[in-house]
Specification:
By secondary structure, this protein is an alpha+beta fold. Helices cover about 25% and strands about 30% of the residues. The chain has 21 helices and 42 strands. The strands form eleven sheets. Strands 3, 4, 5, 6, 7, 10 and 11 form a seven-stranded antiparallel beta sheet that branches. Strands 28-31-32-38-37-36-35 form a seven-stranded mixed beta sheet, with helices on both faces. Helix 6 packs antiparallel against helix 10. The longest helix has 19 residues.
Length: about 800
């Protein structure tokens, strides 16, 4: 919302305040201020000129030689290439030595042999935004009104000498999306008199609204819907005072009818819309919900397919406007319009918000309907606008307002005590102090023994509970005047919960393993959300109003997001990627509306784990690298000794021969392996290895006790064994058998060789293990170790038909 201090001064005296001071006060008491500026700042020697003679340049097909009166003794010659330049125009002239927008200096020079002593300017060239330049001047110079005096600075004629405060209005302060709302707040903050002229209308007794049209509106969709008719209107450019107010508010002037609706929008915060009566082709306007698939072409020339939740204005049959968002092109006011139908309404804010989001139509009107409007001035704004259109367009306002029902506007009553206000703010305000603040805000207040009954007018629809009144007292009294005190009470040392500590430790362990943390969106597509399923029976949770087609469903796994991240890096020539993510996934049971939030951790790796050096070969990521990272993580969090990895082909997104499920105490906690080549190709990736663990289950498992064991004083004895076994026999089964039969002195078992090739029969493999025996109380004898070793060998031969090599 761009606030002109000159316009603001019409309602509350601010011309004695520095703009920086005023902006700082607004920011400290109400809403943020993005910037303050004055369009004339940095410009110089830009004056009004009058073109006395315009002739074609002899050596150019588009340039003109202009003789221009700039208030000096003799006209000056300027070369101009604007297509709309003509004689006897009042124009903007940058003299030789002038500074225009962008700190560009204008110098005297020659253009194809002809002297040019300055520049005839377009509005854009002196600092105006393209979005506010009237369309008829968008590609040429701007023509000033005939009253402009040659030689005088142009700044006053164009409103460039006005200070502008650009305020960033928060959703709770929709009342400040209007000049009157800002004026009320400034008057309250400074304790100054507020003067708001009432909108009135002069009706023509010879014309009556009932002869033109009637209204039918559903009260749920449009609690208030009012129409006026202005006949015999001449559509033409707006006067200069109106154009200045609009472009200083960031709005492009169009014509006197549309400009008045935008002017009232900025002044009252009340959206209005104008229809060409002769294009409606009906004597009844009907406000209803759109039919599914119904279409309308809006003022931006876009054909839109409507949904059943959209509110539309119709002529009884066809939509002519998307209510509260944008009008229809089929009833647009143009130069041939003679009868204007003016609409002022209040629509269901929820429907307006949904429609504007879905259609990506965030207009000034929809923003105000979404945040709320002043119910008390719906009709006043309509009257003011109708009267102004009639005045500027030489028209007549028909007697009466077309409406089906009217809205009951009542003050909001809120009760609060002085004691409560002082207790919350830590102040010692008196009854008189608080009463004065409420009255400055325009509230009606009654007080009895420190108890206030406050009647809040409809222009502050954001106030409804005692806490709102306390906030108003605080900001008007001044946050900087509230005493600062340190909190008193016992201090409690902060610490992490067990779950928080495990999560932090998990991140630290994975980062120590060489992985980098990635943070992905919690929303994805339905297809990606349902991949890598932990709980296949779970239902996905989809958003009713997603922000895009790629963010429609809450995630049920972390791997999909990591694959997106890996693919993004691979597309930018980052070949070696190792990411992890710790976060929540969302599972929804069949009979539940809301999903469960479950802590997970996952990783994705591709490329090399180690680059080649002068003494080491490069080492690509493989199954055992990522499995080792998983095992290290589980060891560090205290459950690694009970982990079992089981080969599986049940995950359709994973490689059927390089994937393992992970179990602890018989409970499934995750999986690790290679992504299926087909899916990897979808992401334009080569081999990618991933794991995902249910961290919630890991945290709930009992942890292995940490017991200190001193280094043994007695030597250990090692025995190696090489076995020839069938290919389908798993290493984990063999290690389990060795441990079960190795006796009490078997300390550890480690595999150190795996071989399958030319010297091994087809269908067999060779596995070699080191068995370490140790007793912490005494030295073991060879006979004890040999006896235990022989038992292991016999059991391996018996269980697996192993051949000892």
């Amino acid at each position: 919302m761009k606030v002109s201090t000159k316009w603001l001064n019409d309602y509350v005296k601010v011309d004695d305040l520095a703009v920086e001071e005023l902006a700082e006060k607004i920011e400290r008491t109400a809403v943020e201020v993005d910037e303050t500026y004055r369009l004339e700042e940095g410009l110089k020697k830009i004056v009004v000129g009058k073109t006395l003679e315009v002739v074609k340049h002899p050596d150019s097909d588009h340039l003109n030689i202009c003789q221009v009166d700039v208030g000096e003794d003799e006209p000056i010659q300027i070369i101009c290439g604007a297509p709309n330049i003509a004689a006897n125009q009042k124009v903007i002239v940058a003299l030789s030595g002038a500074r225009i927008a962008g700190n560009v200096k204008i110098k005297r020079g020659k253009m194809r042999g002809q002297v040019s002593n300055g520049m005839i300017c377009a509005l854009q060239e002196i600092g105006f935004s393209e979005s506010v330049v009237p369309k008829e001047y968008a590609d040429g110079i701007y023509v000033l009104p005939e009253s402009a005096v040659p030689g005088e600075p142009v700044y006053n004629y164009l409103g460039m000498d006005e200070d502008i405060i650009d305020v960033d209005v928060t959703p709770n302060r929709g009342d400040m999306l209007s000049m009157r709302g800002v004026a009320r707040d400034v008057a309250a903050v400074y304790g100054r008199e507020l003067t708001l002229p009432m909108g009135t209308v002069n009706e023509d007794d010879g014309l009556h609204i009932k002869d033109y049209l009637s209204v039918k509106a559903d009260k749920e969709l449009a609690p208030a819907y009012k129409l006026r008719v202005i006949d015999n209107v001449t559509v033409k450019p707006s006067p200069m005072w109106l154009q200045k107010r609009l472009w200083n508010a960031g709005v492009r002037p169009i014509n006197n009818v549309v400009d008045v609706t935008n002017y009232i929008l900025m002044d009252y915060g009340q959206p209005l819309h104008s229809f060409d009566y002769n294009k409606i082709n009906s004597k009844e306007l009907v406000v209803r919900l759109a039919e599914q698939g119904e279409k309308i072409t809006t003022l931006d020339d876009q054909e839109r397919e409507l949904q059943s939740g959209d509110i539309v204005i119709t002529n009884g049959k066809d939509p002519i406007a998307l209510a509260g968002v944008m009008g229809g092109a089929n009833t647009e006011v143009d130069d041939n319009t003679t009868t204007v139908v003016l609409e002022s309404a209040m629509f269901d804010s929820s429907s307006i918000r949904k429609t504007s989001r879905r259609e990506n139509l965030h207009s000034e009107a929809s923003m105000r309907f979404e945040r709320g409007i002043n119910r008390g001035t719906i009709e006043e704004a309509l009257d003011y606008a109708a009267n102004l259109i009639a005045e500027l367009g030489d028209g007549k306002v028909a007697t009466g307002i077309a409406q089906e029902q009217d809205i009951d506007v009542q003050d909001t009553t809120v009760e609060i005590s002085l004691e409560k206000i002082n207790n919350v703010l830590g102040t010692d305000l008196s009854v008189a102090d608080v009463t004065d603040i409420f009255e400055r805000l325009g509230f009606k207040v009654e007080e009895n023994a420190g108890e206030f009954v406050v009647n809040v007018p409809p222009f502050r629809w954001d106030i409804s509970i005692p806490a709102d009144l306390i906030e108003e007292v605080a900001r008007i009294y001044g946050y900087d005047n509230i005493p600062a005190t340190l909190p008193v009470g016992p201090t409690t040392p902060g610490h992490y919960t067990y779950e928080q500590q495990v999560i932090r430790n998990t991140r630290a362990i994975l980062e120590a393993s060489g992985l980098t943390q990635a943070i992905s969106y919690g929303l994805t597509t339905k297809v990606k959300a349902e991949r890598f399923a932990f709980e296949p029976a779970m239902k996905s949770t989809e958003l009713d109003f997603p922000m895009s087609s790629d963010h429609t469903t809450v995630r049920m796994n972390l791997i999909s997001g990591l694959l997106d991240d890996v693919s993004y890096n691979k597309a930018r020539k980052v070949e070696n990627v190792a990411f992890y993510e710790q976060g929540r996934v969302f599972f929804r049971d069949e009979d539940s509306e809301r999903p469960r939030e479950v802590e997970h951790v996952a990783a994705a790796m591709t490329g090399l784990i180690e680059d080649a050096t002068w003494h080491d070969k490069k080492r690509p990521v493989d199954f055992y690298v990522i499995k080792g990272i998983v095992q290290n993580l589980l060891d560090k969090v205290g459950v690694g000794s009970r982990v079992i990895y089981t080969a599986t082909a049940e995950h359709e997104e994973m490689h059927p021969g390089r994937t393992a499920n992970i179990y602890i105490d018989g409970e499934f906690i995750g999986f690790v392996g290679e992504v299926h080549p087909t899916l990897a190709k979808e992401y334009n990736l080569d081999r990618v290895y991933v794991f995902e663990l249910d961290l919630q289950k890991v945290m709930e498992l009992s942890k292995d006790p940490e017991v200190y064991e001193p280094v043994s004083k007695f030597p250990a004895i090692k025995r190696d064994i090489a076995l020839l076994v069938a290919e389908d026999i798993q290493n984990s089964d063999i290690i389990k058998t060795i441990k079960e039969n190795g006796g009490a002195n078997l300390a550890s078992v480690n595999i150190f060789d795996v071989y399958a090739g030319e010297k091994i029969d087809l269908g067999f493999k060779s596995l070699a293990y080191t068995l370490t025996f140790e007793n912490k109380e005494r030295t073991l004898t060879d006979d004890e170790v040999n006896k235990a070793f022989d038992k292991v060998v016999n059991k391996l031969q018996e269980n697996y038909k192993a051949v000892i090599r």
